[in-house]
Design goal:
EC number: 2.4.-.-
Shape: elongated
Distance between the termini: 14 Å
GO molecular function: glycosyltransferase activity
CATH superfamily of the largest domain: Glycogen Phosphorylase B
Enzyme class: transferase
Radius of gyration: 21 Å
Protein name: Glycosyltransferase family 4 protein
Strand order of the largest sheet: 3-2-1-4-5-6-7
Number of domains: 2
Largest sheet: 7 strands, parallel
CATH architecture of the largest domain: 3-Layer(aba) Sandwich
Keywords: Glycosyltransferase, Transferase
Structural class: alpha/beta
């Protein structure tokens, strides 16, 4: 049973849980997905996952209702594993697992979250990269109970969803695909692109995603007179066609335990330029599958853009490097790794 506070699109932990639940059901396991506000309910049901709406724990009385609903559900379905993907979900699932005899597994998707210590309620705690595992151990998590399962989203069940119509990419292009909020530092990508644009006026930057910084960044693009070259495209449930059409994928995150979009960009064959934070170096094979640059350093990112934009052979070489070995980043491998984790605690 996967337990989430909500399952709203555009959240990496939701995408991990949805991919995992679908893959597990495809492999023949009995899988329940318990959350409120689901964006992927139909997809989950298509794969044979039991989808149950559990009231969101937004406060004291709501938490009691949510916990009671989760307990009734667990009594009906008798899961061997309860897998919590959020802090509030871990708190709700812990007593339910105790009462029903299930084993609680937790996945920490963001160790920098102030409440991530609550995830140690799990009998085993899964970190989404080795860098994230080390961060949790530094925070005081017992090393013996923390394991790493590197995220992967290639060949995701979500790829079968009807394509979002957000328009074709303007090309040749750099593609940014993330939330538009401070931690993702999309403004640094815009700064890097602005630096090289006079040398490569035919190139475009396509910004895919949504978030609170969008209006401010749009205004900044206008001030830079780049509105004809920088395009804010909105969010999408189906990024694969966009990634396959892009020339370069860029990520400027200031912190990222293990971004799914970078794993998808590798599988799509984008040349990748990304900041060397969190699990990103692991996803990019320590720089062999993509160029790593320091965070908060637009000039370094601009230099990488310049090499790719100015040399078609260099661009093609980095696109080929991204593809090689990307099969390790599939959802099937992630599901197999999690099955080993489950078996180790049963």
């Amino acid at each position: 049973m996967h337990v989430l506070k909500h399952a709203v699109r555009g959240n990496g932990h939701v995408h991990v849980a949805v991919d995992l639940a679908c893959a597990q059901a495809d492999a023949g396991h009995d899988v329940t997905f318990a959350s409120a506000r689901g964006s992927y309910d139909d997809l989950l049901r298509e794969h044979g996952v039991r989808v149950v709406d559990v009231p969101e724990a937004t406060g004291g009385p709501a938490a009691v209702r949510s916990g009671w609903a989760l307990l009734r559900l667990a009594h009906r379905t008798r899961p061997e594993i309860m897998h919590a993907h959020m802090m509030s979900s871990a708190v709700l699932a812990y007593p339910v697992a105790k009462v029903t005899g299930a084993v609680l597994v937790t996945t920490v998707h963001n160790s920098f979250d102030a409440h991530s210590n609550l995830m140690r309620l799990g009998k085993v705690v899964v970190a989404v990269s080795e860098a994230e595992r080390q961060a949790l151990i530094t925070k005081g998590f017992p090393p013996r109970k923390v394991v790493a399962v590197l995220n992967g989203a290639a060949r995701s069940p979500r790829e079968s969803l009807p394509l979002d119509d957000i328009g074709p990419l303007a090309r040749p292009c750099v593609l940014s695909l993330s939330g538009i909020h401070p931690r993702k530092a999309v403004g640094d990508i815009i700064s890097a692109f602005a630096e090289v644009h006079p040398e490569f006026p035919d190139w475009h930057l396509n910004v895919v995603g949504w978030g609170p910084e969008r209006e401010a960044l749009e205004a900044r693009v206008a001030d830079l007179s780049l509105t004809d070259s920088v395009h804010f495209m909105g969010s999408t449930l189906t990024p694969k066609p966009l990634l396959e059409a892009a020339d370069v994928f860029a990520s400027a995150s200031l912190a990222d335990p293990c971004p799914l979009t970078t794993t998808e960009a590798r599988a799509a064959g984008c040349a990748i330029v990304a900041t060397s934070v969190g699990g990103v170096p692991e996803v990019l094979d320590r720089g062999r599958a993509g160029q790593l640059v320091p965070p908060q350093d637009p000039p370094a990112m601009a230099a990488a853009f310049r090499r790719l934009m100015g040399d078609p052979a260099e661009l093609a070489a980095w696109q080929d490097r991204a593809r090689k070995g990307s099969e390790y980043l599939t959802v099937e491998r992630v599901a197999a790794d999690y099955e080993q984790v489950y078996r180790s605690v049963l």
